[in-house]
Queue: 2 jobs
Job 1
Amino acid sequence: MKQLTLVRHAKSSWKHPELSDFDRPLNKRGKNDLPDMAERLVQHNIIPDRLITSGANRALKTATAIQTRLGLPDDNFLIQAEMYESCSETLLYLLQNSPDHIRHIMLVGHNPGLEMLGFYLSQQTIEKFPTAAVMNLHLSIKNWQELAEGCGTIALFDYPKKHQPFPG
């Protein structure tokens, strides 16, 4: 059995319109959400053998914070340019071409690609895949080439607003 964890980047800033979308940084909320999100990964023992991230600034900052908290070595941290603005098919192809000795892969990237990939693999509809969301899937496959529609089960779906106190 393999595992896949999908992580949408933390909340980004639109404060600097002169920046390209690729270069947008995290905003204050995004920076504040990251430590708690990384801590919940530890609490749920979601520690990948390989972390693959988009090179976009907001995804890279999210992935680096996760790498630091989980203590992942640099040789298990990959930046994949094709993950930026990628569709679920591109992400699926990336995963299907992963080495089989890797048991658990974490992708840090963007919507709608991540959400669509999660649905394709699990056939479970989620209402929304918000920023800093984590979806951990247990996959009923022995090698990555076997990834196919409905082969996964969502073991965890978590995001920051699930943990915010109710007002009042």
Note: The longest strand covers residues 2-8.
Job 2
Amino acid sequence: MENTLPSIPAKRYFTIGEVGDLCGVKPHVLRYWEQEFTQLRPMKRRGNRRYYQHHEVLMIRKIRDLLYEQGFTISGARNKMQEILEAEREKRRSSGLPDDDIGADVDLASAEPEITVPSDIAMRAQQVAQLRAELQEIRTLLLLN
């Protein structure tokens, strides 16, 4: 069933509605799963609006698969998710990688290809630096007059 879900777009954050559409789950179910699965912690901003990252969407798809396709109970799915994360932690430790923020790197959807997002952070930082310099120049001109 997971194969019929749409592909995950290459963007940094997703709203609860977008995640619901991407995972085939209603928003109230996602909010409930947040209470049941401690690994699922979307960022909350203004007015407690939830913003999910790519790894959390993959995690939700895995939870959905465990519950709806494989027939796990909530408790069983919670235990299985913990096993997956522990196995990934151990794998990272044995390869010498830090195990902090482990959920961000866990491939919870083994059939789901990892989406790579082109990094334009350096370009944006350069643009910000140019804008800052231009604004400083304008400020200097305004203060002289």
Note: Helices lie at 16-23, 27-36, 54-69, 74-94, 121-144.
